[in-house]
Amino acid sequence: MPELLSVLEAQQKILSAVPKREPESCSVEAAYGRVLTQNIHSPLELPPFTNSSMDGFAVRSEETHNASAASPVRLPVKLDIPAGFSKTEPLLVGTAARILTGAPLPPGADAVVQLENTDQQGSSQTTSLPETVSIFVPVKKGENTRFAGEDVKSGQLVLKSGRILQPQDIGLLISLGVRQVSVWPIPPIALFSSGDELLTPDQPLTPGKIYDSNGFVLAGILKKAGAEVIQLGTARDNPQSVVEILDKALLYPPDLIISSAGVSVGVFDYVRQVIEENGSLSFWRVNMRPGKPIAFGYYKNIPFIGLPGNPVSAYIGSLLFALPVIRSLLGLPPFQQKLVKAILTEALESPDGRESFYRGNIKLVDGTYQASLTGHQGSGNLFSLVQANALLIVPAGVKVIPAGEEVSAWALEAGLD
Ligand code: AMP
Ligand code: MG
After folding, report:
1. Number of helices (H) and strands (E), helices first, in the chain?
2. CB contact set of 61 (below 8 Å; sequence gap of 6+)
3. Of the candidates 105, 117, 119, which has an alpha carbon nearest to the alpha carbon of residue 60?
4. Which of 70, 73, 102, 403 could staple 83 via S-S, CB 3.0–4.6 A?
């Protein structure tokens, strides 16, 4: 009889048994949300050239020192510099250049007088170049200019290995002209359901049959975690069908195969048997409720997690055992349950001392979380999960937590309130 593992032991066994792929190259445009496996040093400086931060007139600052509204400094305008302009002639002594935001400062200029502080407030690149400009306010050296390299120096470390790439990171990389980055690959995960009773959503519901909901719940969880989901379909309750489905996975091959149902002790639970005969089974039971029959092993040489068939068990099993693996494959920090302490409004029982996860609702009452159960707790009952915003945890070895006592609540992302 295989030993009954704790949730933590099972998680650790699975995590250490699923190998990571080598990093891959990804175009920067497609790299949002990916995890860097390299440090990025800037290949150039930003801004790449000194430019104006205002629409106005580029000047030699010392020539504006005596400017005032009562006695403006008047300079002939000899250059017109729009944004994107590449050949910047030098600014002659005693002259000004009309300049737009982002345009390169001409050699000789060291400041920009903003349009509003001149008599050319209406002047833009669509109007003809004025002959002169009268400046009402002096500017200091460097005023209204952005210096080359003031943001990023050439060679500077701008993004560290392990960074989860954010939209602004992508913007910076694009600004730097970086085209490819090295990231952890998106893990392909193959998924299948098993059972003679399962129907696809387009089939009519007939006596004795149910719709395959697990396939969709699990696909959603895996996709949200960042995996690429490969749908293998449904295996029927015979060994040939299970082998056929599993063999389909070999064509890809995925980093991990996940199934639901068929790993318990029933006469038609062939999934476990097929794994034992065509690979190896590491364990198939975990000391938890719901969802004790959790199997882990290899099909041929591909890691395999067999989740229970009951929808709530499959859901909780995927959060506990599949999510940590996917996060690790993606190079993300370990999965952290969001745990809050809550006061129970009713007792929670776990007579055989298994680690138990109850569907519940937590709400803040006068600054303290209160926890109550949602609906019927049968492990096949998905609606009570839909209504829950937390899983209330009874630790292993504890048989009851009475009403009024504190419970650890694992906050889920959704739930009716
Ligand atoms: P099993 O592990 O095959 O004994 O299945 C346990 C329970 O889960 C049974 O009531 C099945 O009908 C149900 N079940 C199995 N697979 C699915 C599925 N893909 N979607 C919904 N319920 C399922
Ligand atoms: Mg079954």
Report:
1. 8, 27
2. 110, 111, 138, 139, 140, 141, 142, 143
3. 105
4. 102
- The torsion defined by the Cα of 350, 352, 355 and 361, in degrees rounded to 10, comes to -10
The Cα–Cα gap between 57 and 129 comes to: 11
In testing the pocket of ligand 1, which one of 194, 198, 199, 285 has its CB within 8 Å of the most ligand atoms?
A: 198
| % of the chain residues with pLDDT over 70 | 98
413 CA distance to ligand 2 middle (Å): 29
pLDDT tens sequence across 240-270 = 999 999 999 999 999 999 999 999 888 888 9
The CA-based angle 78-79-82, given to 5 degrees, is 155
Q: 261 near 271, Cβ under 8 Å?
A: yes
Q: Determine the Cα–Cα distance for residues 34 and 382; give it in Å rounded to an integer.
A: 32
DSSP-based three-state secondary structure for 252: coil
Average confidence (pLDDT) over 53-61? 97
Query: Closest by alpha carbon to 85, among 118, 113, 58?
Result: 58
Q: Give distance in angstroms: CA of 393 to centre of ligand 1.
A: 24
Taking residue 66's Cβ as centre, other Cβ atoms within 10 Å add up to: 11
CA of 298 to the centre of ligand 1 (A): 22
C-alpha of residue 266 to centroid of ligand 2, in Å:
8
**CA 314/CA 220 separation, integer angstroms:** 13
Distance 201 CA to ligand 2 centre (A): 18
Pocket test for ligand 1, best of 236, 260, 316 (most atoms within 8 A of CB): 260
Phi (first) and psi of residue 357, to 5 degrees: -125, 105
Helix axes 270-278, 239-250, angle to 10 degrees: 50
Q: Which residues line ligand 1 (CB under 6 A)?
A: 193, 195, 197-198, 210, 212-215, 260-262, 264, 266, 308-311, 380
Half-sphere exposure of 65 (CA within 13 A, CB side): 4
Over range 208-231, report the average pLDDT. 97
What ligand has the least distance to the C-alpha of 208? Answer: 1
Residue 393 contacts residue 341 (beta carbons within 8 Å): no
> Ligand 1 pocket: which of 203, 211, 214, 218 to mutate (most atoms <8 Å of CB)?
214
User: Band of the pLDDT at 3, cuts 50, 70, 90?
Assistant: low
Amino acid occupying residue 340 = V
How far apart are the CA of 22 and the centre of ligand 1, in A?
36
